Amino acid sequence: MSTSTPEAVKKLLENMQTDLRSLSMECKKKFPPVKEAAESGIVKIKTIAARNTDILASLKENSSEVVQPFLMGCGTKEPKITQLCLAAVQRLMTHEVVSEAAAGNVINMLWQLMENGLEELKLLQTVLVLLTTNTVVHDEILSKAIVLCFRLHFTKDNITNNTAAATVRQVVTVVFERMVAEDERFKGIVEQPTPVQGNTNRRSVSTLRPSAKDAYMLFQDLCQLVNADAPYWLVGMTEMTRTFGLELLESVLNDFPGVFLQHQEFSFLLKERVCPLVIKLFSPNIKFRQGSSGAASPAPVEKPYFPICMRLLRVVSVLIKHFYSLLVTECEIFLSLLVKFLDGEKPQWLRAVAVESVHRLCVQPHLLRSFCQSYDMKQHSTKVFRDIVNALGSFIQSLFIVPNTGNPAATNAPAVLYIYIYIYTHTHTRHLAMSV
To answer: Are 75 and 111 within 8 A, CB to CB?
Structure first.
């Protein structure tokens, strides 16, 4: 149902007056200033309703005054009053009658409630309603809303933690969806953006429009946080895990490849931030050898960490799948790493995860054809295609050579699966190579 129909507008005005009366009654004895603000709000609403003009536009124009009683109500920190006020603010947001200034005041109020540990689930719900129903929040206010969600993700309460994680994912998606919509609105307008030079730490990118700038700053800071560096835009972050950061990076790269292919600034982030980060985080997996110990080597080698490695390989798969044409040199490095992870001296779980990643790539004929053309068919290039096939063959053979010391049912099933993958991949790629 539309929120701009006469019936919906009439219902909104009635609900707002009811909310303000309830707020006035709740604050009558303990919080007289809030009571007075609520009564003034009722008068304001009646004045707006009496005008036979665009009521929604008038509400938005006066939204800072309209929401003020509810912000004051939240400032009381009384649970019942706070819940009433947040519900009223959400109703205003749903009807898109919140201005940029009013939205900034709301975010500041939510931040105060977050710092006091109050109504955490309601806070997340309010942020999500604001960002999904309106496009008035940008720049520092948007970053503050995102940081609020991140901070609630790292609370000790499991329900809040999981809800905040889902909210962060949705908010990140919304930021990039806004950019896609913005690009669509300006489709056909030719611009000549200035290429970004070097590893810039600028707080904004002058060549990008508002929504694109927000998306750029967000993605740049995700890279910073995964790299354990301080963010430039998400000021106030107190905690972050690499696993969650890598999941967010993978989601953005997989869901919005056009953003990175169409904008030079985002292509820059791919080449200068994402690829070096992935290679750096893969370092423990490259150096580690199965059975090696700190006593045998002069410098103990950090063991590969399964959660990080699994997510890194997913990111690599997405980079190769969507951005191969942009990252030919980088993809050569990634593919060589995958081959190294199939080495017999690597942990068995790492080899298994690497096989899965290789299989995701090998079921896409256009990628295999590109591998042959870009690498194997060039005289001084790595024979990536050949190395993948040989590594898979060696991996399958090792499954029969290594004695079965565990449960037969537990080891034979993976062997059958990997044999199928190898046969399918080997047959498919050989046919493809001949066609090239």
So the answer is: no
Sequence-distant (6+) residues with CB within 8 A of 107 are 127, 130, 137, 141, 144, 145, 148
With the C-alpha atoms ordered 408, 411, 413, 416, is the resulting torsion angle positive or negative? negative
pLDDT digits (tens, 9 = 90+) for 299-319: 444 566 788 888 999 999 999
Residue type, 240: M
What is the rounded (10 degree) CA torsion for 363, 366, 370, 376? 50
Q: Which of 140, 144, 139 is nearest to 123 (CA)?
A: 144
| Measured distance CA(415)–CA(427) in Å, rounded | 18
Apex CA 28: angle with CA 26 and CA 32, to 5°?
A: 120
| Helix (H) or strand (E) segment spanning residue 228 | none
State how far the Cα of 64 lies from the Cα of 73, in Å rounded to an integer. 14
Q: Quick one: pLDDT at residue 353?
A: 86
- Dihedral, CA atoms, 387, 388, 394, 395, nearest 10 degrees? 150
**Vertex 318, ends 314 and 320: CA angle to 5°?**
115
DSSP state of 411: H
Strands (E), 343-409: none
Q: Determine phi and psi for 67, rounding to 5 degrees.
A: -85, -15
Angle at 194 between CA 189 and CA 199, to 5 degrees: 135
**Residue type at 314 in one-letter notation:** R
Helix or strand run (H / E) with residue 138: none
Q: How far is Cα 429 from Cα 84, in angstroms, rounded to an integer?
A: 63
